[in-house]
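queue> pop job 88
queue> type: inverse folding (structure -> sequence)
queue> payload:
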């Protein structure tokens, strides 16, 4: 199944038109349905980080788990910092650990803290595909990593043959949203054994709106 850029643009326009006005800016999402794939085989499952050419449309929430130089670098960028001491406190409460995992879109962590993070937060971050980006403890400039994360979406194929991904917000230009969607579709195709032949259908929708099929 191949997707013409103009067909994607048309689906984006229709999804926006059919979405009722809400008192918040809705996210635009894409759902890619797959076929002929056996997800009982681990080799058919995958995780992907896709850098959207036109960004996510809104700032993701990023937390940095670190002490020392990395923590200072994070503070200079105005990021939330969780120290090793705070990490141990959070670990005492499953409720607080779950809340932390839900609150942030991405985590950056200093390498020496990864064993603790895996032990204390792994079971909360792993299933949400939010394990941290790991940096050296001496890193003093996090800006390139943060700028990349601001344009990144993480997606995964796990137990069901469908992949969901946010691709922007409803106020973004239709063409830019379409290019973001195309980038996600192409990244998924690149991971499939038989490429586009394993894509059954693709839909686009806003957070609260109906799904609109992209015509192949």
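queue> result:
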């Amino acid at each position: 199944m191949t997707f013409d850029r103009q067909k994607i643009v048309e689906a984006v326009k229709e999804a926006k038109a059919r979405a009722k006005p809400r008192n918040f800016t809705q996210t635009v999402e894409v759902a890619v349905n797959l076929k002929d794939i056996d997800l009982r085989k681990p080799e058919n499952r995958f995780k992907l980080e896709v850098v959207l050419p036109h960004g996510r449309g809104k700032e993701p929430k990023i937390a940095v788990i670190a002490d020392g130089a990395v923590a200072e670098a994070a503070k200079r960028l105005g990021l939330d910092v969780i120290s090793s001491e705070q990490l141990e406190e959070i670990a005492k409460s499953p409720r607080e650990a779950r809340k932390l995992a839900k609150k942030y879109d991405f985590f950056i962590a200093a390498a020496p803290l990864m064993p603790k993070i895996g032990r204390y937060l792994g079971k909360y971050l792993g299933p949400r595909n939010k394990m941290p980006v790991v940096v050296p403890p001496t890193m003093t400039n996090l800006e390139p990593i943060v700028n990349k994360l601001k344009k990144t979406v993480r997606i995964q194929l796990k137990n069901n043959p469908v992949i969901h991904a946010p691709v922007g917000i409803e106020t973004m230009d239709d063409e830019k949203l379409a290019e973001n969607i195309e980038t996600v579709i192409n990244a998924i195709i690149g991971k499939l054994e038989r490429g586009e032949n394993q894509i059954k259908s693709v839909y686009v929708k806003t957070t609260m709106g109906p799904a609109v099929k992209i015509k192949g």
